[in-house]
Specification:
heterodimer, A: mainly alpha, 14 helices, 1% strand, B: 181 residues, mainly alpha, 7 helices, 0% strand
Chain lengths: 395, 181
């Protein structure tokens, strides 16, 4: 029964393909199967996007001691629908000075790669669109195109705020891409594979009550935290939302976008967040595997989406709690703290691999990482003059 | 000659031509990025996953961004050149390009890689590439690492502000007394 429930979507797809093949030539089987997977993925994540916009506004509202949207439908549940209709019917305003072609292409260059990145995420047992030999590399490669889109949007708008936002965004994305990839490399070292499916398989199984997730090792915990921070920066989430910075540069690189193009940027940003959170789950939180042995009867996709929703809730909580960083703080945090720590984490992962199993390697790796964390943090604090701030022009 | 090969080749060629013939520098950089992405697609078409993704990651993700940054930080991206982009000496330029292309084509035609024994698409899994890099080509890998480290340190030294200049910047009232470097 549990097995059947787990594979219900896979079975349904097989049945559907078999039924469709009665009407079309057999050579189409592969195309049909791929199309069905892609359509499901698009619908599922677009629905999750609609749900998340509501959850985010509700959650932020609660954190700020107000209700959030509660007018459209029961508990405001139909708010995303209203937002969608509004975005579709709004006038598409393009500045006269804007570079028309680049301005038009930019949102597409953002949305297409982030949806492509979802293709390698295993959302359940046997549920992945493509199992690439170099899946992880594919994820980061298509993610690289989003930086270009941000630049295109910022530059083509001919607006100083959007250009500032684009420059900030690119500087931030390039800086945080390094710790993001380096912290993912530790998992590749352990799993011995770049395939996301293989990485999840490595984390299956339990010792006693505890699952074999990478986050439950010293290097995995450090890698997970580094990955999560870098992921927030890559997705332009608070506290790294300088490129948008509503209070200083209004909305950054998409200030000159309205109507559905703006909605596309919004969609791209959220799907990017889902993709990178999904990768964090795949790499460190065991993908679709159950957290406890007696919960294994729950279908695998339920676990994946539960973990995804908890990570999203975490990001909403962080957004409601932390203030925005300053540009110099952002840069020094990336290059002076995250980068050295992720390099040391690589060393810790190597040690973990080659030290004999047991308490010694736990103690050794934990001590190494703790010492690095404390040392780097101290040096970062000492170099900054945290005394009274002096203003050059304001006094 | 399949449809995807045609589309990718068209993207690459049109992007490359646009990169050298458009008037606006930023448009040229974006066209170059499109051409590089098309090349990555061609690698994928040849079943070379690792090379294709690395091309995308390095060239579209890093080199194109670097070029764009360089354009924006050095001179106004809005200023367009007065004359047409290529006038002076295009005949010797075309001759040189033809000679270089001829050399490459000749080298490819005479190479053993075109022998019919390799017609079945060769498999190059990432694991095999990694093992080769760590055993047979480890010296080349290390040398490239040293080169990149040297370039990185050089860039930091160029960008670093000297201590005397920094003190002058922090105390604007004493700028007249300290000699500015």
């Amino acid at each position: 029964m549990a097995e059947k429930l787990d594979q219900i979507f896979v079975q349904a797809k097989h049945e559907l393909v078999r039924w469709l093949l009665c009407h079309v030539p057999g050579a189409w089987a592969e195309v049909l199967s791929a199309l069905l997977s892609i359509a499901t993925l698009l619908v599922a994540f677009a629905a999750l996007f609609a749900l998340t916009t509501l959850l985010e506004r509700k959650g932020l509202g609660r954190i700020q001691n107000r209700y959030g949207p509660n007018r459209v439908g029961p508990f405001g549940l139909l708010q995303p629908v209203a937002d969608g209709i509004k975005a579709l019917t709004k006038e598409d305003v393009v500045p006269r000075a804007a570079d028309q072609v680049v301005h038009f292409i930019a949102p597409l260059v953002l949305v297409v790669p982030v949806f492509l990145a979802l293709a390698v995420l295993p959302v359940g047992r046997n549920m992945v669109v493509v199992d690439l030999d170099a899946g992880l590399l594919f994820f980061f490669a298509v993610g690289a195109a989003t930086e270009l889109s941000v630049f295109m949007a910022g530059w083509s708008s001919r607006n100083k705020y959007s250009l500032l936002g684009a420059m900030r965004a690119i500087a931030q994305m390039i800086s945080y891409e390094v710790p993001l990839i380096l912290s993912a490399v530790t998992v590749v070292m352990m799993a011995g594979s770049l395939s996301t499916v293989r990485i999840v398989e490595v984390q299956a199984g339990f010792s006693g009550w505890l699952p074999h997730w990478h986050v439950l090792t010293p290097w995995g915990l450090a890698g997970f935290l580094l990955f999560l921070i870098a992921a927030a920066a890559e997705a332009n989430r608070c506290p790294f939302d300088l490129p948008e910075g509503e209070s200083e540069i209004i909305a950054g690189y998409y200030i000159e976008y309205s109507g559905f193009k703006f909605a596309l940027f919004f969609l791209g940003e959220y799907i990017g967040l889902f993709a990178v959170s999904g990768l964090a789950i795949t790499l460190f939180l065991g993908g679709w595997t159950a957290p406890l042995p007696f919960l294994q009867w729950v279908p695998s996709y339920v676990w994946f989406f539960l973990k995804l929703l908890s990570l999203i809730a975490f990001f909403i909580w962080v957004r409601g709690t932390l203030p925005r960083l300053r540009m110099d703080q952002l840069m020094s945090f990336a290059w002076k703290f995250m980068l050295p720590l992720s390099l040391i984490n690589l060393l810790a992962a190597g040690l973990w691999r080659f030290l004999p199993e047991g308490l010694t390697r736990w103690a050794f790796c934990s001590l190494l990482l703790a010492a690095a964390y404390i040392g780097l943090g101290r040096s970062l604090v000492q170099r900054r003059n945290l005394g009274r701030r002096t203003y050059r022009f304001a006094e | 000659m399949t449809a995807d090969f045609l589309i990718l080749s068209l993207l690459t060629l049109v992007g490359a031509v646009a990169a050298v013939s458009l008037r606006n520098l930023v448009h040229c950089a974006l066209a170059l990025a499109a051409a590089l992405a098309g090349l990555a697609g061609l690698y994928l078409h040849l079943q070379a996953q690792f090379v294709g993704f690395a091309q995308l990651l390095v060239y579209v993700g890093a080199v194109a961004i670097l070029i764009v940054f360089a354009i924006l930080l050095t001179r106004g991206s809005d200023s367009e050149p007065d004359g047409p982009p290529a006038t002076r000496g295009w005949v010797p330029g075309a001759g040189l390009a033809a000679a270089a292309a001829g050399l490459v084509v000749a080298a490819i035609l005479s190479s053993r890689a075109l022998a019919p024994s390799l017609q079945s698409s060769p498999e190059a899994p990432v694991r095999a590439i990694g093992e080769q890099l760590m055993t047979r080509y480890v010296l080349a890998l290390e040398l490239i690492g040293i080169l990149l480290t040297a370039a990185l340190i050089g860039a930091v030294i160029i960008a670093m502000t000297l201590p005397s200049r920094r003190s002058a910047e922090h105390k604007p009232q004493s700028r007249t007394s300290t000699p500015d470097l």
